Amino acid sequence: MEAHAMPYYGGRTPETGLAVYTQKVGMWVFLCSEVMFFTGLIGSYIILRFGASETWPQPGEILNIPVTAINTFILICSSVTMVKAFAASEVGDKRGTRLFTLATAVIGAAFLGVQIYEYSELLGHGFGPWSGLYGSTFYTMTGFHGFHVFSGVVCMTWATVKAFRGGYDNGNYQGLEVLGLYWHFVDLVWIILFTIVYLI
Amino acid sequence: MATIVAEPTGIPVVEEHHEMSFIRKYIFSSDHKVIGIQFLFLSLFFLLVGGLLAMLMRWQLAWPGRPMPFGGLFPETMAPDGIMLPEFYISLVTMHGTFMVFFAIMLLLVGVFANYLIPLQIGAPDMAFPRLNMLSFWIAVPSGLIALASFAVEGGAAGAGWTSYAPLSGMPEYSGVSMGQQMWIVSLVLLGLSSILGSTNYITTVINMRAPGMLWTRMPLTVWALFVTAILGLLAMPVLSGGLIMLLFDQTIGTHFFLPETGGQPLLWQHLFWFFGHPEVYILILPAMGFVSEILSAGSRKPVFGYKAMVGAIVAIAFLGFIVWGHHMFQSGMNPVLGTSFMVSTLVIAVPSAIKTFNWMGTMWRGNLHFHTPMLFAIGFVMLFVIGGLSGIFMASAPFDIYIHDTYFIVAHIHYVLFGGALFAIFGAIYYWFPKMFGRMMNERWGKIHFALTFIFFNLAFFPMHTQGLAGMMRRLYDTTGYTHTADLQGTHLLITISAFALFSTGVIFAINFFGSMFRGERAPPNPWNATSLEWQTPSPPKHGNWEQAPVVYHGPHEYSHPDVTDKDWLAQNERPDVVSPAGH
Question: Which of B238, B257, B585 lies closest to A48 in CB terms?
Fold first, then answer.
């Protein structure tokens, strides 16, 4: 048989894999799992709310929408600084990398601070996770989002320390890009949660 | 005999030859092979535990109310005077299912073989994230231990069944178990985390770490199956985790997700559980199908019949697996129209499953069959999976399911697919890849005896459950003497129990063979089965880093009896036929 009749041999070895570095692929894969986690929570919320026998409280009746709206704005700002940190590290701007990683960690922590304030106010008025389906779903969904922000802030703090030690100098931007993917995802989830839990 | 030709790729492989401490090398290792073997010991341990629990249940079913042998070892809260209490029996049922599904079969299929085989079969030096892989193992260990420890706490282990339906599982007052149920939840949340980290790793590794020339269409079917399984785990596990956490909150901080008296919806738990639970069923069978395809091909000395159809069937089963969960809930009060649509989507799964079954037969058809132990287990898998698959079609049709719902017919089905299916494939895979893992062969004669006895006693133990189920024997029933229609089944229960004891004893043969061969077995050559995939082209066991040089892949995975190769009946994936067999040109 002639060699050219064999598809497996031609002296050529096809390249495999995506043209994307492995950490980034890994983060995208992990985020798929996170999407399903929040889909489970949001889906349960929808089913419980539509099936509820008690009347669902009106927007603003229990929750303080203005405070949370400001908090939403704070979280969106942290996404902006995250992008700036990544952009600075990509072009080798050491000062910018340090400034914006620090800013992202601080703004993320500020979001958590406002959320803790909100929880303590609500608990002070006797509204807890035991307060019917409304309380159950509110605390579970916002709580898990808060836990994700907390994890992000821990990672950003670590990244800030690394930035100040020069860990992202010399165009080493990959860590910040991967962390940024997570950060923006958590931000995006909040926009959905804010809409369906607070506004609708 | 042709020599293996490995072309230099120019890709440097990092060789770590520096000495590592014992702890770094064997305990907190990040080497995928060591982690795979760690998972092997862990999951075989839980297989033993799950089996022991089943033996206790079988005692009670055969001889209700009679003191157990060694029954005095159990505390008063479980078995006073050696006689099993109903609460303890239901804990046994629950924990048998939990251990077998989550800690034995799932860890054996995915924890062991995905870790061990994926990098070797795709020609990668290790997983994409080795340390994450180590973390995934070390989360699974405490997870299993927490589940095991729940037997020792006040109130005993979880007693709401492995499905933990609410509201029984949601309020400690209902089941009489509080701490045990919460430990069950925490254990599974941890296992879910371990599984998600593992899946992320497997998927990323397969996407980005394949050797040059290892195209998607050249991956061994085992890798395909494990890859698709990882996607199932990645997408299904987090939904279970969310539901489990809600259940935990219902138990502990007074939320009302699944408790009807305060507006919650028990049916929501069933939806969340089975949205995970049905993909989970395919997590437990797809890798087994991959192993079987590979073993049947090697044992028949023929390429897998219909490779692309096999891949397509794996993907189709996985996709359909996400839209059929409602067939577990025909009796739950769900809208009957919804039930019909779930029935149709479930029946459709028979098509890709049948494609696989016929392709396995096509693979063996007119092959040069070698009946070694892995091959016997693979053939056993096909036979028993067909029985389990056919009873699955029965149950998929709602009118029949209403009749046999929650009876031993279901128990028979699940054991035909999980024991006759998954576990037979696992045994085959252990016999097949043991030489690669430990560098020694398992004993062939005792392997065959193990197969024959397992096959006989498995069928004796589980086939009669079909008829018991049709006769109305209820699943999870503690005392069969209480009803007239179940009291008549006592003779069959005795037969099943004796067969189950015998089946459990065959595990001793396996254990002796396994541990004996590890130290005393015949030294294994690199490629004892004359197989084609990449892992057989390395020494047994492979070194840290797997390859001296990254291998180059030239063709598909199952090239047996290739017409261009004249001097042997196999062609490794990294061999070029014109070099192996120049006479062919």
Answer: B257
